[in-house]
Design brief:
Layout (H helix, E strand, L loop, with lengths): L1 H38 L9 E3 L12 E3 L7 E9 L8 E10 L6 E9 L2 E9 L16 E10 L8 E10 L4 E10 L1
Organism: Geodia barretti
Family: Belongs to the NPC2 family.
GO molecular function: sterol binding
Length: about 180
């Protein structure tokens, strides 16, 4: 009877040890896979352009999209980003050409960019007082206007997906134009 108990105990002990070892291997494999995925550099977006030839309002690869309403009084004619692709630690320049269908006397420009739901940029600027971005001053007349936005992409920024919105509103709070961002560094 004593030998049978020893056999039962050692069989139970071996099974528990095997299960524990298997569990450790699964956890170790998952940790190694997660670490490997974290260490691999993410692909840079190939092109970040939004223009009228893309009829559905979405930039190539879905990185930029026009989220404006059909009744908005500003239309995006083109949006080009350089360098292509953006690089960490470098200045990123966005050149946009806009068509105003009516006069705009004033308003605001709101820029929000998030990384994993954490705001990394949240700026609100007076639409009539941004000479570094919009060369023309208010009132903005109907017609084509060009704007340039320059921002240094932090060298310590993590690899991953960034989402955001750039929204211009008139002085009454009505949306003029909306650009949705979704890019990966």
């Amino acid at each position: 009877m004593r030998l049978r108990e020893k056999t039962r105990i050692s069989t139970t002990t071996i099974m528990k040890s095997a299960l524990f070892t298997a569990l450790l291997l699964v956890v170790a494999a998952a940790a190694m896979a997660a670490r490997a995925a974290h260490l691999q550099p993410k692909a840079h977006p190939a092109v970040q352009t939004l223009s009228k030839f893309v009829r559905n309002g979405t930039g190539l690869n879905g990185l930029w999209s026009d989220c404006s309403s059909s009744g908005d009084s500003v239309k995006i004619l083109s949006l080009n980003v350089t360098p292509d692709p953006p690089e960490k630690g470098q200045k990123v320049t966005a050149d946009v050409k806009l068509e105003f269908t009516e006069e705009v006397e004033g308003g605001s420009l709101n820029i929000l960019v998030k990384y994993k739901y954490i705001p990394v940029m949240n700026k609100k600027k007076d639409l009539c007082n941004i000479p570094d971005i919009l060369a023309d001053s208010c009132p903005l007349q109907p017609g084509v206007h060009e704007a340039t936005f320059i921002q240094k992409f932090p060298s310590h920024a993590p690899y991953g997906t960034y989402v955001g919105k750039v929204v211009a509103k008139d002085k009454s709070g009505n949306e003029l134009v909306c650009i949705k961002l979704n890019f990966t560094i």
